[in-house]
Write a structure and sequence with these properties.
Layout: E1 2-6, E2 12-16, E3 22-28, E4 34-36, H1 44-49, E5 57-58, E6 64-65, E7 69-72, E8 75-78, E9 87-88, E10 101-107, E11 110-119, E12 130-139, E13 143-152, E14 156-157, E15 161-162, E16 180-183, E17 185-189, E18 202-203, E19 215-216, H2 226-231, E20 235-240, E21 248-254, E22 260-266, E23 270-274, E24 282-283, E25 289-290, E26 297-301, E27 316-317, E28 323-333
Antiparallel strand pairs: 1-2, 2-3, 3-4, 5-15, 6-9, 7-8, 10-11, 11-12, 12-13, 13-28, 14-27, 16-19, 16-21, 17-18, 17-20, 20-23, 21-22, 22-28, 23-26, 24-25
Length: 335
């Protein structure tokens, strides 16, 4: 089932029950020309074969978990090693590979859909039954809000995110190297050679990860820097400024050619910037080929490998608690 969100702003968004996937976001440019600004596919069958999480909600835990295992309350849990030797984005059949139950709605604020899924005890190795609800709403002001809610009957890690690849010039139009990016973060979590956080939190000062002022995505992506070499580009978690739990700015992405602007606000402590380093020329919508840098992800989240990093904010959800998170994608036109 596909849900079309249209709040009468000129922006329309398609959301699938499969994977809770944002299939398309159609946004006008400064001349009023509309383009789809997220990478994706034309059919559900193609999403079923997808290896890159295009547009999906990923979970139970976004990002990598080292050694595909963690210890919680003295018990060790082995997870699916779908990114050997690590566990990535929820495993072989994470939340982006299941069919959710959707219920559309429309009110004075806008149009949306509520998507629900129950992840059983032992799913991909995670303990506890987890009931998840994701609410996607397009407001009359052109804001896509994504709200997450989850409860569990046993302690379990939970870290959900939205994995859309954005290209504000339009999907299939080329790379995003000329997009201008601002990230509201003083620090980041550096990677080791397994693409896992070292556990440190390091200042962005003097590094090519300093996006506190706007920079072209491609301006420094090829410089001789160990972190960029390890990841093949940007694939790093930023520690977003401000108090986690409060909705605050995380990033601003702008395409000077079209004038389209995306601002990301979140309650999450972190955001993963990923420049599509592993995209391999796959055929997407209309047969468009998506190679490296064809789009970039702004994944609001807790930090990767948090179950194994006691110095990071906890991702453990316990019975009687509720997991809540909100991210807003605010679209506009500049000039």
């Amino acid at each position: 089932m596909t849900y079309l969100l249209d709040a009468g702003t000129g922006i329309t968004i398609s959301v699938l029950e499969y994977g809770a996937i944002v299939q398309s976001i159609r946004v006008p440019d400064r001349e009023g020309r509309v383009a789809d600004v997220v990478l994706g596919y034309d059919t559900v069958a193609e999403y079923e074969r997808d290896r890159f999480y295009l547009g999906a909600v990923v979970g139970r835990c976004a990002g990598r978990i080292g050694g595909a295992a963690f210890t919680l309350d003295g018990t060790r849990y082995a997870l699916s090693p779908n990114d050997p030797p690590n566990h990535l984005h929820g495993g072989f059949r994470g939340f982006g590979k299941v069919t959710w139950h959707g219920e559309p709605f429309e009110d004075a604020s806008g149009a949306g859909v509520v998507l629900e899924h129950t992840s059983p005890d032992g799913d991909e190795g995670y303990p506890g039954t987890l009931d998840v609800r994701v609410t996607c709403m397009l407001s009359r002001e052109g804001v896509l809000s994504v709200e997450y809610h989850a409860v569990t009957d046993r302690p379990t890690p939970v870290n959900l995110t939205q994995h859309s690849y954005f290209n504000l010039a339009g999907e299939g139009s080329g790379d995003v190297l000329d997009h201008e990016l601002t990230v509201h973060a003083q620090s980041f979590t550096p990677l080791d050679d397994r693409l896992l956080p070292t556990g440190e939190i390091v200042s962005v000062e003097g590094t090519p990860l300093d996006f506190r002022a706007p920079h072209r995505v491609g301006e420094r992506i090829g410089v001789d820097d160990e972190q960029l070499r390890i990841a093949g580009g940007y694939d790093h978690n930023f520690v977003i400024d401000g108090e986690p739990g409060a909705l605050r700015p995380a990033a601003r992405l702008a395409d000077p050619a079209s004038g389209r602007v995306l601002e990301v606000f979140t309650t999450e402590p972190g955001m993963q910037l990923y420049t599509g380093n592993f995209l391999d020329g796959l055929a997407g919508k209309g047969g468009h080929r998506y190679g490296p840098r064809a789009g970039l992800c702004l994944e609001t989240q807790h930090f990767p490998d948090s179950p194994n990093q006691p110095g990071f904010p906890s991702v453990v959800l316990r019975p009687g608690e509720a997991y809540r998170s909100r991210t807003e994608f605010r679209f506009s036109v500049d000039g």
